[in-house]
Design a protein that fits this description.
Thiamine_Salvage_TenA, mainly alpha, Heme Oxygenase, Chain A, binds 4-amino-5-hydroxymethyl-2-methylpyrimidine
Length: about 210
Protein backbone atom coordinates (compact mmCIF):
# COMPACT_ATOMS: atom_id res chain seq x y z
CA UNK A 1 0.00 0.00 0.00
CA UNK A 2 1.61 3.27 -1.08
CA UNK A 3 1.74 6.25 1.26
CA UNK A 4 -0.82 9.01 0.66
CA UNK A 5 -1.04 12.63 1.75
CA UNK A 6 -4.20 11.89 3.72
CA UNK A 7 -2.34 9.20 5.69
CA UNK A 8 0.33 11.70 6.66
CA UNK A 9 -2.33 14.00 8.11
CA UNK A 10 -4.13 11.13 9.84
CA UNK A 11 -0.96 9.61 11.30
CA UNK A 12 0.43 12.86 12.70
CA UNK A 13 -2.51 14.79 14.16
CA UNK A 14 -0.49 16.53 16.89
CA UNK A 15 2.23 17.78 14.56
CA UNK A 16 -0.38 18.96 12.08
CA UNK A 17 -2.44 20.73 14.72
CA UNK A 18 0.67 22.56 15.94
CA UNK A 19 1.36 23.65 12.36
CA UNK A 20 -2.14 25.02 11.75
CA UNK A 21 -3.49 26.17 15.12
CA UNK A 22 -1.49 28.85 16.90
CA UNK A 23 -2.10 31.84 19.20
CA UNK A 24 -0.78 34.07 16.39
CA UNK A 25 -3.71 33.09 14.19
CA UNK A 26 -6.14 33.07 17.11
CA UNK A 27 -5.22 36.68 17.92
CA UNK A 28 -5.56 37.70 14.29
CA UNK A 29 -9.07 36.30 14.43
CA UNK A 30 -9.77 38.06 17.70
CA UNK A 31 -8.35 41.29 16.29
CA UNK A 32 -5.87 41.49 19.17
CA UNK A 33 -2.64 40.67 17.37
CA UNK A 34 -0.09 43.46 17.95
CA UNK A 35 1.22 45.41 14.94
CA UNK A 36 4.80 44.34 15.71
CA UNK A 37 3.76 40.70 15.66
CA UNK A 38 1.74 40.95 12.47
CA UNK A 39 4.29 43.06 10.63
CA UNK A 40 7.09 40.69 11.57
CA UNK A 41 5.08 37.83 10.12
CA UNK A 42 4.35 39.84 6.95
CA UNK A 43 7.97 40.82 6.25
CA UNK A 44 9.41 37.40 7.08
CA UNK A 45 6.72 35.62 5.06
CA UNK A 46 7.61 37.76 2.04
CA UNK A 47 11.11 36.32 2.26
CA UNK A 48 9.69 32.85 2.78
CA UNK A 49 7.61 33.19 -0.39
CA UNK A 50 10.71 34.19 -2.38
CA UNK A 51 12.30 30.91 -1.28
CA UNK A 52 9.08 29.02 -1.91
CA UNK A 53 8.89 30.42 -5.45
CA UNK A 54 12.38 29.10 -6.13
CA UNK A 55 11.30 25.74 -4.75
CA UNK A 56 8.27 25.79 -7.07
CA UNK A 57 10.63 26.33 -10.01
CA UNK A 58 12.71 23.31 -9.02
CA UNK A 59 9.55 21.23 -8.49
CA UNK A 60 8.37 22.13 -11.99
CA UNK A 61 11.77 21.10 -13.38
CA UNK A 62 11.45 17.69 -11.70
CA UNK A 63 7.77 17.10 -12.53
CA UNK A 64 6.33 14.96 -15.32
CA UNK A 65 4.72 17.13 -18.01
CA UNK A 66 1.21 15.95 -17.11
CA UNK A 67 1.67 17.60 -13.69
CA UNK A 68 2.49 21.01 -15.16
CA UNK A 69 -0.99 22.60 -15.11
CA UNK A 70 -1.44 23.05 -11.33
CA UNK A 71 2.23 23.89 -10.87
CA UNK A 72 2.22 26.60 -13.53
CA UNK A 73 -0.96 28.13 -12.12
CA UNK A 74 0.67 27.99 -8.69
CA UNK A 75 3.72 29.82 -9.98
CA UNK A 76 1.51 32.47 -11.62
CA UNK A 77 -0.29 32.88 -8.28
CA UNK A 78 3.08 33.31 -6.57
CA UNK A 79 3.92 36.16 -8.93
CA UNK A 80 0.73 37.89 -7.82
CA UNK A 81 1.45 37.02 -4.19
CA UNK A 82 4.94 38.53 -4.19
CA UNK A 83 3.56 41.77 -5.65
CA UNK A 84 0.74 41.71 -3.10
CA UNK A 85 3.23 41.34 -0.23
CA UNK A 86 5.11 44.36 -1.56
CA UNK A 87 1.86 46.36 -1.67
CA UNK A 88 0.88 45.31 1.87
CA UNK A 89 4.33 46.23 3.17
CA UNK A 90 4.14 49.63 1.47
CA UNK A 91 0.69 50.28 2.98
CA UNK A 92 2.19 49.64 6.40
CA UNK A 93 5.41 51.53 5.64
CA UNK A 94 7.42 48.38 6.29
CA UNK A 95 10.96 47.92 5.05
CA UNK A 96 11.19 44.55 3.31
CA UNK A 97 14.99 44.71 3.21
CA UNK A 98 15.42 43.60 6.82
CA UNK A 99 17.44 40.66 8.13
CA UNK A 100 15.86 37.28 7.59
CA UNK A 101 15.23 35.74 11.01
CA UNK A 102 16.78 32.36 11.93
CA UNK A 103 13.43 30.50 11.78
CA UNK A 104 12.70 31.85 8.32
CA UNK A 105 16.25 31.08 7.22
CA UNK A 106 15.95 27.50 8.48
CA UNK A 107 12.69 27.02 6.57
CA UNK A 108 14.25 28.45 3.39
CA UNK A 109 17.23 26.12 3.88
CA UNK A 110 14.85 23.14 4.13
CA UNK A 111 13.36 24.17 0.77
CA UNK A 112 16.80 24.60 -0.81
CA UNK A 113 17.92 21.18 0.45
CA UNK A 114 14.85 19.57 -1.14
CA UNK A 115 16.55 19.99 -4.52
CA UNK A 116 18.53 16.80 -3.90
CA UNK A 117 15.37 14.78 -3.17
CA UNK A 118 13.17 12.87 -5.59
CA UNK A 119 10.13 14.46 -7.25
CA UNK A 120 7.82 12.47 -4.95
CA UNK A 121 9.42 13.99 -1.85
CA UNK A 122 9.45 17.50 -3.33
CA UNK A 123 5.79 17.17 -4.33
CA UNK A 124 4.87 15.99 -0.81
CA UNK A 125 6.66 18.96 0.76
CA UNK A 126 5.06 21.43 -1.67
CA UNK A 127 1.60 20.08 -0.91
CA UNK A 128 2.20 20.15 2.87
CA UNK A 129 3.45 23.75 2.78
CA UNK A 130 0.40 24.95 0.84
CA UNK A 131 -2.04 22.89 2.92
CA UNK A 132 -0.63 24.29 6.16
CA UNK A 133 -1.56 27.83 5.11
CA UNK A 134 -4.86 26.76 3.57
CA UNK A 135 -5.94 25.06 6.79
CA UNK A 136 -4.22 27.43 9.19
CA UNK A 137 -6.01 30.52 7.88
CA UNK A 138 -9.25 28.63 7.20
CA UNK A 139 -9.47 27.28 10.75
CA UNK A 140 -9.24 30.85 12.02
CA UNK A 141 -11.68 32.40 9.54
CA UNK A 142 -13.37 34.75 9.18
CA UNK A 143 -10.96 37.40 10.39
CA UNK A 144 -11.88 41.02 11.13
CA UNK A 145 -10.35 43.96 9.24
CA UNK A 146 -7.55 44.54 8.42
CA UNK A 147 -6.82 40.79 8.44
CA UNK A 148 -9.80 39.64 6.35
CA UNK A 149 -7.91 39.61 3.05
CA UNK A 150 -5.03 37.67 4.62
CA UNK A 151 -7.34 34.90 5.83
CA UNK A 152 -9.13 34.86 2.47
CA UNK A 153 -5.93 34.69 0.42
CA UNK A 154 -5.06 31.23 1.70
CA UNK A 155 -8.40 30.11 3.13
CA UNK A 156 -10.54 30.61 0.02
CA UNK A 157 -12.26 27.57 -1.58
CA UNK A 158 -10.35 27.88 -4.89
CA UNK A 159 -7.09 27.60 -2.96
CA UNK A 160 -8.47 24.50 -1.22
CA UNK A 161 -9.18 22.98 -4.66
CA UNK A 162 -5.65 23.80 -5.82
CA UNK A 163 -4.19 22.10 -2.74
CA UNK A 164 -6.32 19.01 -3.49
CA UNK A 165 -4.75 18.84 -6.94
CA UNK A 166 -1.32 19.07 -5.35
CA UNK A 167 -2.26 16.16 -3.06
CA UNK A 168 -3.38 14.07 -6.05
CA UNK A 169 -0.09 14.72 -7.80
CA UNK A 170 1.97 13.91 -4.72
CA UNK A 171 -0.09 10.75 -4.19
CA UNK A 172 0.56 9.70 -7.76
CA UNK A 173 4.29 10.25 -7.38
CA UNK A 174 4.28 8.33 -4.08
CA UNK A 175 2.48 5.40 -5.70
CA UNK A 176 5.58 4.30 -7.51
CA UNK A 177 7.97 5.19 -4.70
CA UNK A 178 10.30 2.74 -2.96
CA UNK A 179 10.44 2.35 0.84
CA UNK A 180 13.32 4.81 1.27
CA UNK A 181 11.50 7.50 -0.69
CA UNK A 182 8.32 6.91 1.30
CA UNK A 183 10.30 7.36 4.51
CA UNK A 184 11.80 10.59 3.17
CA UNK A 185 8.33 11.86 2.31
CA UNK A 186 7.09 11.20 5.83
CA UNK A 187 10.19 12.84 7.30
CA UNK A 188 9.79 15.97 5.18
CA UNK A 189 6.12 16.20 6.11
CA UNK A 190 7.07 16.27 9.79
CA UNK A 191 9.83 18.81 9.14
CA UNK A 192 7.40 21.08 7.32
CA UNK A 193 4.92 20.81 10.19
CA UNK A 194 7.64 21.74 12.69
CA UNK A 195 8.86 24.67 10.59
CA UNK A 196 5.30 25.97 10.29
CA UNK A 197 4.80 25.89 14.06
CA UNK A 198 8.18 27.59 14.57
CA UNK A 199 7.33 30.28 12.01
CA UNK A 200 4.13 31.24 13.82
CA UNK A 201 6.00 31.25 17.11
CA UNK A 202 8.71 33.53 15.67
CA UNK A 203 6.10 36.11 14.67
CA UNK A 204 4.18 35.68 17.93
CA UNK A 205 7.26 36.46 20.00
CA UNK A 206 8.07 39.65 18.06
CA UNK A 207 7.75 43.00 19.81
C1 LIG B 1 5.44 30.02 6.41
N1 LIG B 1 4.08 28.61 4.95
C2 LIG B 1 4.55 29.83 5.22
N2 LIG B 1 4.26 30.87 4.46
C3 LIG B 1 3.47 30.72 3.36
N3 LIG B 1 3.18 31.81 2.59
C4 LIG B 1 2.95 29.45 3.05
C5 LIG B 1 3.29 28.40 3.87
C6 LIG B 1 2.06 29.21 1.85
O1 LIG B 1 2.69 29.52 0.69
Amino acid sequence: MPLTCQQLIDQHPDAWRAATVHPFLQRCQAGTIQPGQFNTWLVQDYHFVIGFTRMAGRLLAAAPADHFNPLLSGIAALQDELNWFQAKAAERSLDLAVAIQPNCQAYCQLMTDLASQSYAVQATAFWAIELSYNQGWQKHSPMPEPYTEFADRWGNPAFTDYVKLLAQQADQALQGADAATTEQAEAIFLEVAQQEADFWQMAFEAK
